[in-house]
Amino acid sequence: MRYADYLRLEGTCSIVLGLALALVAFPGLLVSYDAWWAGLLFVPGVLLALAAWARLRRGVPLLAAGRWLTERPLAGATAGRPGLDAGRLRRRLLVETAIWIAAVTAWVVLARSSGLLIFGTGLASAAFGAVQAFAARGRVRAAEREAGTAYVVAERPGLGTPSLGTDA
Fold first, then answer.
1. Buried/exposed 6-33: b ≥16 CB within 10 Å, e otherwise
2. Which residue spans traverse the membrane (predicted)?
3. CA–CA separation, 156 vs 153, rounded Å?
4. Of 48, 39, 47, 41, whose CA–CA distance to 118 is shortest?
5. By the 8 A CB rule, do 8 and 66 touch?
6. Closest CA to 44 of 62, 21, 26
7. pLDDT tier, 168 (very low <50, low <70, confident <90, very high otherwise)
8. Which of 103, 117, 122, 141 counts the most CB atoms within 10 A of its CB?
9. Which of 166, 154, 160 is nearest to 84 (CA)?
10. What is the mean pLDDT of residues 104-116?
11. Distance in angstroms (rounded) separating the CA atoms of residues 75 and 63
């Protein structure tokens, strides 16, 4: 699977997951809590933490959102390393997203707690997904044009960023 396509899919999954979490934990729907507006603060908090981490680890400019998630994988791409099967990776991402939605929904329905945390996390997940699906994907496409090669996902660990190969 091409890395740009992976970022679009994983970003879309994060957006869907985030919106589902925000909906299930929306104040007054299944859970009630004070200061629901504090959930909105999760978005800039997560994005600022992501930007700061990229800055500290790789020297990425704070406003270069497309590079926050892609700098290390692109730098570590290995020529000729084959990509993972797109169909299997797509199914894995979709199943993971569905499991997370089901598990968190079950938690909210059964426990009737953690509303603010889940609401804020949902909004932040959607924002993170937008960075992946749009800014990071655009960065990868620009890097592909510049290098004259396509980047592919060669390995995707359970946690962390994928390892890349190139088609050259």
1. bbbbbbbbbbbbbbbbbebbbbeeebeb
2. 12-30, 36-54, 93-110, 116-135
3. 7
4. 39
5. no
6. 62
7. low
8. 122
9. 154
10. 93
11. 19
Model confidence at 119: pLDDT above 80: yes
Amino acid, single-letter form, for residue 165: G
Length of the chain: 168
26-60: pLDDT as tens digits: 998 889 999 999 999 999 999 999 999 999 999 99
Note whether 22 and 126 are within 8 A (CB).
yes
At 117, phi and psi to the nearest 5?
-60, -45
**How many angstroms separate the CA atoms of 2 and 20, rounded?**
27
Residue 63 has pLDDT above 90, yes or no: yes
Nearest to 71 by CA among 88, 59, 85: 59
Structure tokens at 93: 């991402």
User: Smallest Cα–Cα separation from 40: which of 109, 119, 111?
Assistant: 119
Q: What is the pLDDT of residue 160?
A: 82
Q: 163-166 and 151-155 as β-strands: parallel, antiparallel, unpaired?
A: antiparallel
Q: In which residue are the tokens 């894995």 written? A: 92
